[in-house]
Amino acid sequence: MRYRLTFIAGLALGYVLGTRAGRERYEKLKKAAREVSQNPAVRNTAESAAQQTRTYAGKAFASVSEKVEGRVPESVAGRVRSLRERGGPGASDDWGTSNT
Q1: Buried b / exposed e across 66-86, counting CB within 10 Å, b at 16+?
Q2: What is the pTM for the complete model shown?
């Protein structure tokens, strides 16, 4: 209960301070955030971090699937095998999305 009250108090304080700052300050913050997000250095760093994450996730996927496959029910093991055959984490999934 104490955490809820703290959260609600923080939310109320943020609302009050936000309304005092006004629309002009909001627009300035929004413009600054857009400029930072469109900076080539920031974009390159974010893409580099995403690529590293995909690499480590692929290694973890392979390692875990090899170790776990013999210790899980056959239905799950079959799913892991089918994922591995389709190309692992980089391939598109059942919902038509992919890790790009």
Answers
A1: eeeeeeeeeeeeeebeeeeee
A2: 0.43
